[in-house]
Amino acid sequence: xxxxxxxxxxxxxxxxxxxxxxxxxxxxxxxxxxxxxxxxxxxxxxxxxxxxxxxxxxxxxxxxxxxxxxxxxxxxxxxxxxxxxxxxxxxxxxxxxxxxxxxxxxxxxxxxxxxxxxxxxxxxxxxxxxxxxxxxxxxxxxxxxxx
Length: 147
Hints:
The chain is an alpha/beta fold.
């Protein structure tokens, strides 16, 4: 069996989140052991992030996903939560909020808020589903595919 090739970028979770502080810390330890790689994740686990803030290695990038139960922490500690991702329905909505849209995860390594266009499976009849359907009809962006 051959080992997988080393990757420069490692996204933690294609979907989902950190389920415990020990689990988040385990990923930080993994990043420390692999300083040649960049590890990154989107998370709504802001309390865990806050609790481990002094232990985050330089090659470990967290982006706060707006829309969770702990959003109050974003305003309370803006110096910690610089990278915040907002899901928007349209390009116009992102422009009105003054946010760039990230199509390739490159904004996960910056230091300012950004937007993602709503994507993935959405409840039938929802505004999110309608936004995706409209973009598809117009030949626009409908999802983040595997590269």
